[in-house]
Each structure stands twice: as C-alpha cells, then as structure tokens.
Amino acid sequence: MKRILWLAVVIASLSAMVVAQSGVQRQGTIVRMRMTDCMPADHGFMAMMSGGAAAHVETGVQCPEYVLVTDEVVYAISGKTSDDLLPLAESTYFRLQKNEMLIRVDDAPKESHFRIKAMMMRSDWERSQSLQMAEANATINRAPDSETIQQRH
Amino acid sequence: MQLTFSATDQNDRIVATLNASDFAVVDKDLIVRNFRSFRRAEYTRLDVAILLDNSTSIAPRFQQEIAQTLNLLSETSGVPEESISIVSFNGAQPAVICQGNCREEQAAKLVSASAQGAMTPLFDSLAFTAELLAPTPGLQMPDSKVRKVVIVISDGEDTISRRSAGEAVSALVANDVYAYTLYVNKAATRGGMFLEKLAYATGGQSFRLNDGASVVADAILADFRASYQVTYRVPDSSAGFHNVRILPTHNLNLHFRCRQGYVDPSGR
Lengths: 153, 268
Fold this sequence. Notes:
The structure holds two protein chains of two kinds.
Chain A: H1 2-22, E1 26-38, H2 45-50, E2 58-69, E3 73-78, E4 92-97, E5 100-103, E6 112-121, H3 122-142, H4 146-152
Antiparallel strand pairs in A: 1-2, 1-4, 2-3, 3-6, 4-5, 5-6
Chain B: E1 2-8, E2 23-27, E3 30-32, E4 37-40, E5 45-53, H1 62-75, E6 84-89, E7 94-99, H2 104-113, H3 122-133, E8 146-154, H4 165-174, E9 177-183, H5 190-202, E10 205-208, H6 213-225, E11 228-231, E12 240-248, E13 255-257, E14 261-264
Parallel strand pairs in B: 5-6, 5-8, 8-9, 9-10
Antiparallel strand pairs in B: 1-11, 1-13, 2-3, 2-12, 4-11, 6-7, 12-14
C-alpha cells in the first residue's frame, strides 16, 4: 500500500513538473528594462568554468534585459540578441521551458526565447524594493542642500 | 518630468496620430505607463543654428557645404528670419557668421568670406551653440513653444576643444537642443560615429551630405510639426543623470526619438 501511495506522489509531482515545463501560459508585467552587454550563445556554467570563448561577454553588442513581475515570482530575463525587444504592454504572456522563458510577440510565427537570469519570490522582491527606496530617501534627506552648506561656511 | 518626442513607423514616416497607450517611457530603467498628460507639442517657432566646420580637414568639400547650408536656409521657409544663425569653427574659438540676419544672398557672401583654418574645436562649438540657442530669461517666449535645432555640417573630428564630447552633448541636452547632423565624408570614421551618437542623444537625426538638403529640411520640419509631449512622475527619485527612452507597448514597428536623458540635480 505504501509503495502505491509513494508511486502516486511521484507521478503527481512529475506531472506537475511537466505541466510547468511545457507550457502553461502565464501572465506578468514588465517593470524594468535596460540594455546590457550580450552573453555569448553557448553561455553556460561549464563553458564559463572552462574559460573558453564563453567566459567573457560580447562587448559592444547590447541585449535587452527585463524584470517581469507575476503574482508570485519575479523573473530577470535577457534577450539573446539586440533584436529581442518586447512590447512594454501592461500584460506580457509567457511560458517556461527548461531554463528559458518563451514569449510570443504580437503575431510573430515563433516564440522568442529569453534566458532566465534570476528568479525571486515576489514577497522577497517587494521587501528588497522597499528597503532600497527607504535607503535612497534616507540618502536624500541626509544630503545637505546648498543653502545649508553656505550657512555652515 | 516633461519629454518631447517624435514617432515614426516602419517606413520611417512620422506618425500623425498617437495614443498614450501606444508607448511607455523607460526612465532610469523603470517603466512608466501612466502619464500625467500627453498631447501634441505646441511649437510655434523653430530656432535654427547651422554649425559649419570650415577647417582644413574638410576644405575640399567646403563649397558643397555652403551650397547645402544656403539650400537649407531657403527651404526652411516657415522659420522666421530672425531665428536663424550660422556659426563656423576653424580657429581656437567658434565664430558667429550671422545671427538674425541670415538672408540667403547675404549669408552666402559671409560664409564664402569666412576664413578656413587648421583647427577643429567641434565640441567647444557645440557647447557654444547650445548657449547661443538658450533663451534669454524674460525676453523670449517659453521654451515649450520653441523647438531649438542645430544642424551640424562636419566630419565629426575634433582637434583642439577644451570640452569633451560628453560635455558638448550634455550642453545640448540640457538646453533642449536637437542636433541634426550632416556627415561630410563617404567612408565610416570615428567622427561619423560621433555625429550619429550626437543626433541620437539629443533626439535629432543623422544624415550624410549626399542625402541632400531637402531630406534634412523635411525631417526638421516634420519633427517641428508632429512632435508629442508627455509629462509623468519620475519613478526613481534619486539625483543625477536619468537615461530615458520611449518604447512601444504593442506595435514594435513604431520607433520613438527623444533626448537620451536629463539631470535631476536634487532628487525628490
């Protein structure tokens, strides 16, 4: 009986993983965008460790990098080429496959593949954002204005 | 924050009808979709300065430059005569050839008579022109009604300026001056790249001398007549330089041109 239960749990978790990998359409909002140096095509852990061509970034060519916020998870993703631009609509629909995020742009025949650079629980991300904002405000409040500086002199 | 920009379609034609939902502003990497206001820019006047490089580095093409400049003057017929200036640079300092009295035939004589020299203080001349176009407080109409444009005819090389390229670009951006550049060489050089970057950073456009004066004049007048202004709350209150860009929300064939950023001196 225990074996059957164990098997059921394994099958259930496997099927959940498969669903997650293959493509449930999800929705999020892009809140940040910037252009950074493109990562090489064969970028990966082993390539980076081996110190080959992939160990350094391609300088000069800029690829877009986005922060996409969903209800539970926040993703930092980057395009593979400079042309991987996303429309900045309120909602972006995507699915996950292996370590990539697949996004279909408008009526494009194929989905664009974006590298997932980082993931964070939304609650943690919001906490870190609040902390950053508080620090920035504190810095502004601490900085003396020009009038104060003149008075000191 | 107020930002003025132009929109073009996939054929590089000005988009005459644009909605606030068609674009988002990226201010210091943060995306802004909710704007305080959005409307067509209400420019009523175009202030033009033509910056001529008549140094020896481009001396063989000098006659072509003069013809080009005068064509531009005659083609910008909607521009009041008093708002056109011509500045040249060939010595240690830039020189104003004419300001507010740049009639076509008179300017032709003045430009022809201006001496050619060996030095190219391009960056200093750009900063000088930015100041020349800056409004005199209390004497001129508000900045939001005036579109300030500098047409730079040069090979993009600088040999003697005290200011850096970055300082020259910053001076134009800070004074809301849009640069339209005319690169005089055929081969691609570092100078040509600088002129392209200059146009991009200020929200203007870059051309080659062979493109013809009418193309440049058309581009300037199209931007004058069909620009948009958007105002929004700055999402990141930190002081310093804020890089900005405008990107489409739906149609990736839309392209937007605006200045590359602004300096928030205090933070809020």
